[in-house]
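From the shared-data thread, chain only:
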Amino acid sequence: MDLDLTPGMLVRNPNRPDWGLGQVQSAIGNRVTVNFEHAGKVTMNLAAATLETVDEPPPRRRD
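Structure, as tokens:
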């Protein structure tokens, strides 16, 4: 996978939808650290993991 990830980008892991939306914290070579809504900070190797970029976050609920 050849994603050009930079800190601040929003991503999802399609293999782990339960992790929710994630924000890239750092990306160096194939290693990326993402802070996911429901899984916290996860460091992964992009050679073995799949991430999809998200254009914008879902709208927030107003209660």
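The chain has a mean pLDDT of 89.
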